[in-house]
Structure formats: C-alpha cells, structure tokens
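User: Can you model how fe (ii) ion sits in this protein?
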Amino acid sequence: MKDIEEIKKYLKIILSEKRYLHSIATMKMAIKLAKKYNIDTQKAALTALTHDIGKELAYEEKLKYAKDKNIEIDEIERKSPGLLHGKIGANIVKEKYAFSKDMQDAIKYHTTGHPNMDLLAKIIFVADKIEETRDYEDVEKVRKLAFEDINKCIIYILNYNIKANTKNGKLVHENSILTIEKLKR
Ligand SMILES: [Fe+2]
Ligand SMILES: [Fe+2]
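Assistant: Here's the modeled complex, given as structure tokens:
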C-alpha cells in the first residue's frame, strides 16, 4: 500500500487547492472518527484522503472513464455525472494503490450513501460532510451528532441533502432513500 505523503503529492497535482484542502481535512476528521468508533485509523486516513480522487475529471472524461472501465452508470448518474466520482474514485484507488474492497466501497458510497455501508464507509461518508472547512447552517449540530450516533448522523445528513436537492429541482438518488430506510431499522 502506498504511503500517505506520496498520495498527497499526487492529489496536490490533480486537484484544485480547495479540493486538496478538503481532502486533507476529511482525512483528519476520519482519523478522529476512526478512533471514536474503534476502526483502523490508517485505513480510514487513506480512504478519506483519496475519496474525491475522481472528482475533478471533466463531465466527458467521467463518462469516458466509466465506459472504458465498464463501470455501470444508472439513469440518475447519467443526468448528474458528478455523482459518478465515487464509482470512478473507487476504481482509481483499486488500480493505482491496490486499496482493499472495503476501502473501494467506502469511496464508491460516499456521495449518495448506500444501504450496504460498513463502519469504514459510514465514517468516510460523515467525515466528508463535517470536516473543518465545511460551512453550512447545521454543521455544528451534525459534527456533534457524528460523535454521538453515527447512524443518526447519516440519516440527518441524507434528509438535509434530499430536502436541498428537491428544493433545487435536482434528482434524489434511490440509494439515499434506501440508506435512510436501512439505518432507521
Ligand atoms: Fe465526493
Ligand atoms: Fe468530498
């Protein structure tokens, strides 16, 4: 497995300054959450650091990458290819860094959520939304909830996003709905 410094150097080249700083901040938050919930901090750090590795490919590049690598694109992803950066990122870390399946899945699921999320995936999902550079109305509340009850925190974030998307006329991915249903059980 590659080391963190080497990956940081690569991300610094391919990502904008803002997204690079977001990636570092997500890593820092994922380490805190990994400690709180007793999972491997190194694994959480590497996964969080690379979670947006596919994000800055242009629209056409995303579609081409997915096609070249036989990545399945659903209807909502075709309309909002931004969503595809999870699946693309998962494939990049598999090929480039030989990350394990659970790390790939955590990256795959970090945008919409997924009913099959394990604890690593939950931590990456949440760390992405609450890292220190994030600023939105409820962020302090969500940060607190993250360390109290990670499942409730995910439900809160997804409901918040669904409301925002609906208001902005954007589509809601069914994985978000399925995740809420699963976590409420
Ligand atoms: Fe992302
Ligand atoms: Fe992100």
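A couple of observations from the model: The pocket of fe (ii) ion (ligand 2) is lined by residues 22, 26, 51-52, 128 (CB under 6 Å). Residues 17-36 form the longest helix (20 residues).
User: Helpful, thanks.
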